[in-house]
Task: inverse folding
């Protein structure tokens, strides 16, 4: 059996499995050209690209802003509120389920929330890497964006990893997410040469 035949069998089974769902987006990030070709032939569309950025020691850690919110460590009890925030902040393709957030929290090296008036307004979850850390998830309520909440969370995360002696902190975002790119640039991140295409297939009933 060649690769194309194997893919057709697997994709057919996957479509059957998802046939009972509606408004679902299936995404893939192919690292090889042949896989991208298979995805396109199966109806996937190239939506955007994921770009990697890095912060390295030697750069000045940006100063945090004076703020009406506070940043504290995330707890297990925060996860339902974090799920609600995540759903509001991300489109269907990029949302995380509660189970995914629970797993991310369990595996996190640094997980924090921004809180204002007793309400969560932002959060971040970061993992450890061989050279330091990776900012895996950052979200702020849409109506609260533009106030500096995300920036404060990023600066706090960099500071925590820097105190641990991290040689590098990485993050990734989409090439068309200009607000995110601007935030990370302001925090001292620079784009690396790593960039990966995203292909998506939408299931509608």
Result:
């Amino acid at each position: 059996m060649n690769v194309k035949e194997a893919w057709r069998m697997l994709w057919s089974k996957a479509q059957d499995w998802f046939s009972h769902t509606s408004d679902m987006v299936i995404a893939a990030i192919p690292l090889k050209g042949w896989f991208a070709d298979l995805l396109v032939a199966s109806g996937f569309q190239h939506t955007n690209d994921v770009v990697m950025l890095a912060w390295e020691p030697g750069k000045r850690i940006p100063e945090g802003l004076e703020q009406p919110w506070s940043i504290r460590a995330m707890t297990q009890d925060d996860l339902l509120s974090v799920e609600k925030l995540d759903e509001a902040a991300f489109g269907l393709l990029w949302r995380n389920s509660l189970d995914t957030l629970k797993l991310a929290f369990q595996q996190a090296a640094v997980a924090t929330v921004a809180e204002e008036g007793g309400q969560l307004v932002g959060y971040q979850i970061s993992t450890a890497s061989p050279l330091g850390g990776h900012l895996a998830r950052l979200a702020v309520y849409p109506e609260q964006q533009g106030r500096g909440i995300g920036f404060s969370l990023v600066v706090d995360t960099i500071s925590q990893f820097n105190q641990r002696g991290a040689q590098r902190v990485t993050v990734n975002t989409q090439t068309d997410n200009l607000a995110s790119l601007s935030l990370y640039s302001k925090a001292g991140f620079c784009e690396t040469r790593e960039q990966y295409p995203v292909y998506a297939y939408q299931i509608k009933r």
Remarks:
- DSSP finds six helices and eight strands in the chain.
- The radius of gyration is 19 Å.
- The mean pLDDT is 92.
